[in-house]
Amino acid sequence: MEKALPVKELNVLLVGSNSSRKYVVGNIILGKQAFKSDVTACCEQGEGEVCGRRVTLVKAPGWLRGYDLCNTPELSKTEAVLSVTPGLHGFILVINAEIPFKDYYKKTTKKNLQHFFGDKVWDHTIVVFSHRSQIDQETIEDYIKREGAPLQSLLEACGNRYHVLCNDGTDSEKVKELFEKIDDMVAKNSCYETLSTLIENAELKRKEVDKKAEELRLQSQQQRKKLRDLMTEPTLNLRILMVGWVFSGKSASGNTIFKTDMFQTGEITKKALKQSGEVAGREVVIVDTPGWWKFFPAMFTPSPWKAEISNGVSLCSPSPNVILLGVPVDTSFTDDQRGSQRKT
């Protein structure tokens, strides 16, 4: 089969979940550190000369692996749609080959991509498997076979186009082979053209979000001014109580305030923990507490956790100056969750 003519200026969109490591794949392709993380609210762009071509990679915001579309923040949905530029040659769907590919992940991947880019997205998509170490073609074939129907049906939707890039460094030959596969895809299906209605709706949503954000900013400024006017002198000793649902980033926020690792992150907090230190010339006490489940009512929060949340208030004796409610921005915040927060 005759090879397709190479595209001189390659314009590709990187898509995938927040755990797919698409930022690493982008860095491997460009041969430099153009991207830092998968978890971003807005699009990021990287450019460079690669294998004799001018390459532009846009990394779209990701989604939560295995969670329904409704849990993807509206801002991320809007930014993903608006990340499409004229003359887009295709999508690189990054899948982390170190994580089992279950049926629910296949469903959420399909729902997210089709919601963002329409049903024709599959004609312009190639799957790239990311991996930390070198794996050969036979190994990736075994992985596809082992994962079974969920992964195989996703690959079939993409015309069985896939490639492997390893995270342990750049591989110019592998990148060149990837470009050749994209050339073949473009020769067969042309460039991707998005529906004008998708872009128009996304632009309208972005304007609405920008307007609300400006209103909130002005409201916040006014509230801070009122508080400053009421204060006769600053509080020298500050006591902060951290609350929020499980994995909302409470512990990480406490570490950010202290500018050092005072609280354990990456694990479920089960005990209230008090830490203190000097911040901006003040003695600050922060008490981290267990969270509650995001998707379940307060009645399902384990009793020991509830007791530890109450204990957290006691550790802020005589009382906390402020309660900080942790809300992660990489997931949605629905009316049901708002009600659950208030009840808790």
Automatic annotation (TrEMBL):
Pfam families cross-referenced by the UniProt entry: AIG1
Gene Ontology terms, MF aspect: GTP binding
Coiled-coil intervals, chain numbering: 192-233
SUPFAM superfamilies (UniProt xref): P-loop containing nucleoside triphosphate hydrolases (SSF52540)
Keyword presence, Acyltransferase: no
UniProt keyword terms in alphabetical order: Coiled coil, GTP-binding, Nucleotide-binding
InterPro entries named among the record's database cross-references: G_AIG1, GIMA/IAN/Toc, P-loop_NTPase
UniProt record similarity statement: Belongs to the TRAFAC class TrmE-Era-EngA-EngB-Septin-like GTPase superfamily. AIG1/Toc34/Toc159-like paraseptin GTPase family. IAN subfamily.
PANTHER family according to UniProt: GTPASE IMAP FAMILY MEMBER 4-RELATED, GTPASE, IMAP FAMILY MEMBER-RELATED
Descriptive protein name: AIG1-type G domain-containing protein
Organism from which the protein derives: Sparus aurata (Gilthead sea bream)
